[in-house]
Structures are given as C-alpha cells and as structure tokens.
Amino acid sequence: MKTLHHLVRYLLLALTITLSSCASLPEVNADSERTEARAVPTVATAKGRLAKRQAADLLARRWAKASPDLKALATLEEAATGVPLIAGNNVKLLFDGPATMREMMAAASAARHTINLETYIFDQDEVGLQFAALLMEKRKQGVIVNLLYDSVGALGTPPEFFKRMKEAGINVLAFNPVNPTKRIGKWELNNRDHRKLMVVDGKVAFTGGINISSTYANSSFFRSKRAPTMDSRKVGWRDTHVKIEGPAVASLQYHFIDNWVGQDAGELAEANYFPTLAPAGNKLVRVLATDPARDSEIYKAFIVAIQEAKTSVHITSAYFVPDRQFIESLIAAAKRGVDVKLVLPGVSDHGLVMHAGRSFYDELLSNGVKIYQLQVAVLHAKTAVIDGTWSTVGSANIDRRSFLHNYELNIVVLDPAFGKDMQSAFAEDLRDSKEVTLEQWRRRPWADRIKEFAARLTEYWI
C-alpha cells in the first residue's frame, strides 16, 4: 500500500511540473539580520505582548543559567521570521509512537467541547479505526469534531472510511482534492498539507511527525535492544511528537482554523475555540506554520540557528535533501569547531529521497560533518537541537518540498531544560546508529553512486 501511495504521488506531482515555476529559498544571513533585530525579543502571553522591560525581566528569569547567546539568537530568529516567542507553556517530548497515541487518545477522550485534527495520513488500520471510533463517540457525546486530512496523503484510505465519520456528524474536509473538479479554479495538487496537529478544547495540542496510522505508531523500536537490521520490512518506525499546554495552544488553534477556512470550506461550527489560557509552564515557544505563500520561516529559523551555533548542531532528519545554503551553513559550522552531527536513515520507506540525500555525503564528510545512519527503525522524525538550548520538533523535512511547497508546522523551543531532553533523545538515536566514515563512503558500489546521481536530478520535486 505504501509503495502504491508513493507511486501515485509521484505521478500526480509530475503533472504539476510543467504548470509550476521553480520557486527558490530565501538567502539568510544572520549578520544582516542583526540590523533588524530588537534589543529584547518580543514575548507574547495569554494577555498579549509584554512591554520591553517586562519581556527582559521574564527572559532574565527563564534563561538565568543559559548562555548569553540564547537571547541574541532569539532576537535574530524573530528578525528573520517575524514570529514572536510565546511564554508560559509546558512542552512534553514524545518520542515513542505507542506512547504518543495513548496520550493523544487520552486527551481526545477527555474532550468536552472541541477536537480539531489535522493530519497528512489517516489510515484505515488498527490505529486509524480506533481513532475514528473515538472521534465518532465524542461527537455522539456532543463534542464538535473537525477533521482536515490531506487528499494525497490519504490516497490509500477508502473514501467510505471518511464517509462513515461524516455520517456520524464529524466535519470532514479533504485538503486540496486530487480531483480538479472538486475545487475548480484553485486546484493546487503540488501543495500538500503535511502538518500533524490535534487541538483539544483549545487547551492542549499535539504536533510533530506522527500520522494517524499503525505504520507510524505501533512499531516504534526506539530504545530497543533488538539487533540492527537493514531490512525495512523487519524494523519499526522512529518518530517524535510534542504535547503542548499553555498560551501557545491558541496560536496552533489559529493555524488549524486558518487552514480550514483557506480551503473555501466556510467557517467552522460555532464553538469556543479560544478559551482563556493560563500559564501552564515556563517554556518559551515559537510556532512556525508555513505554506507556499509565506516566506519559508521554518527554513530561515534553521539557517539562523546553524549560522549562530557555538558548540553543537545535532539534527535528526527523515528525508534529507538540503539546498546549497543549508549545506554551506553546516560545513561553515563544522569548520569553526562546532560539533555537527546528522542522524539520517539507514533504512527508509522512500528510496528516491534517501539516495538523493546521500549524494551530499562526500562533501559533508570531507568538511568535518559527522553522519550516522539509524539502524533499528525507519526514521521519520524531524528534529534538531543546537547548542543544547535551541530545539525544533515538527512536520518539516529538510528538503525543498517541505520548505517551499507544503503546508508545514514546527515549534521552536528556546529552553536549556527542554534542550537537555532533546540531547538525551539524540544520544539514544546515536546509540542505535552506525557512523559513516569518508573512507568507507568512498568505497561504496558504483550502482549506489548511479542511484544517487539519478535521484539528485529530482531533488527540487521530491
């Protein structure tokens, strides 16, 4: 089914190549952003944006033990993205699929008013059926349920599956339908909704890389003692999600509603989608929701953070097909003594993307970037932790499709304690990965080199 899904997706996207102009990613230079950066980062709360002195006092308390570079990075990132920090949040890292599904289903079970669910894939499998049954039961109890799924991501899911939910009273919407007659004049097949987001009662949200599917959620071998294998049929999936409570939930809720309305689906059913949100923790969060009409804020945040890195850049990426600026930023960081490590797939569900990414290995390894391939799972996580204080978790892969064509959602957490948790998770991934050395890489078979060359030709579209 997954092979069919990828094949159909490639055929569909190929139709758009002759209809679409090639967009390019923006040039990002942290030095030039300094002239635009504020002396103190903008900080928003449930009661609105803080005055400059209040923001400075809050940051001084929250970052008392952090390096002075953290505040500078926060101001540069705001200058690059235009997105403020949101204070007062609790952010829980979820890096195990079954545990994530349990948390999400528990939150949905406790819903009293609304459930807004946005997902790329919603499979009709064990997990999908359980989730659908729960949503229908909550609707029966009077909870308003709005479901937005991507029509390409759900190509393998029978239409009857969504029809049953609709008949149960759930508001169901297919994002950018494959059939052009379903959205005449606004057929945007190449622009997919790759976000994964659930907001319950406007008070708790989940986002990251996990779809509603047994494939992504039931087979996590993270922290497994199982012997490594390179057979993708015999390993599980490694992914990352976060649970968020606090004022940042309102921003996530807004982006769900904005995406829904943007599909010309009309207003959502009337409900209190934006309850008053009290502080739930001390985490400072930046919510980056991008789409093809915006200016690549997730990409900009990545580049600025890498360019400003002082000690470490640790990236875990499921699909790694970077542009030239991203490659040069990683190499420049490594050359100034930063510990640059990438955890990339050892096995993958997406061979074309994997080979395209590997075409960059020689240049990266030659310039001091260290590469590790995860062995015990199909890697699907999209995370990074830089200098132990800047972290991101979300749906965006490091490729042009995510940064230019898709609707994506990442959160950035500027917090040493959360960064420590991210570093710990990264260390676990390293434990289950095999380092790729330059000497070893240059001995790879010519057949692999040919695959890399061919895959590299498609990098803009995959």
Topology:
Layout: H1 2-17, H2 30-33, E1 43-45, E2 48-49, H3 52-62, H4 69-81, E3 85-94, H5 97-109, E4 114-119, H6 126-140, E5 144-150, H7 159-167, E6 171-175, E7 197-200, E8 204-208, H8 214-217, E9 236-238, E10 241-245, H9 248-262, E11 283-290, H10 297-308, E12 312-317, E13 320-321, H11 324-335, E14 339-345, H12 351-358, H13 361-366, E15 370-374, E16 377-379, E17 382-386, E18 390-394, E19 398-399, H14 400-405, E20 408-414, H15 416-431, E21 433-436, H16 438-441, H17 446-456
Parallel strand pairs: 1-3, 4-5, 5-6, 9-16, 12-14, 13-19, 14-15
Antiparallel strand pairs: 1-2, 3-10, 3-11, 4-7, 7-8, 8-10, 11-20, 12-17, 15-21, 17-18, 18-20
What do these coordinates show?
Mean pLDDT is 88; it is low at 15-19 and 218-232. The protein starts with a helix and ends in a 6-residue tail after the last helix. It has helices at residues 2-17, 30-33, 52-62, 69-81, 97-109, 126-140, 159-167, 214-217, 248-262, 297-308, 324-335, 351-358, 361-366, 400-405, 416-431, 438-441, 446-456; strands at 43-45, 48-49, 85-94, 114-119, 144-150, 171-175, 197-200, 204-208, 236-238, 241-245, 283-290, 312-317, 320-321, 339-345, 370-374, 377-379, 382-386, 390-394, 398-399, 408-414, 433-436. The strands form 3 sheets. The chain has a 17-stranded mixed beta sheet that branches. A two-stranded parallel sheet has the order 9-16. A two-stranded parallel sheet has the order 13-19. By secondary structure, it is an alpha/beta fold. The protein is 38% helix and 23% strand. The radius of gyration is 21 Å and the shape is globular. 51% of the residues are buried. The chain has 2 domains: 2-14 and 23-88 and 283-456, Endonuclease, Chain A, CATH 3.30.870; 92-262, Endonuclease Chain A (Endonuclease, Chain A), CATH 3.30.870.10. The chain has 17 helices and 21 strands. A hairpin with a 2-residue loop joins strand 1 and strand 2. Helix 12 packs across helix 17 (446-456).
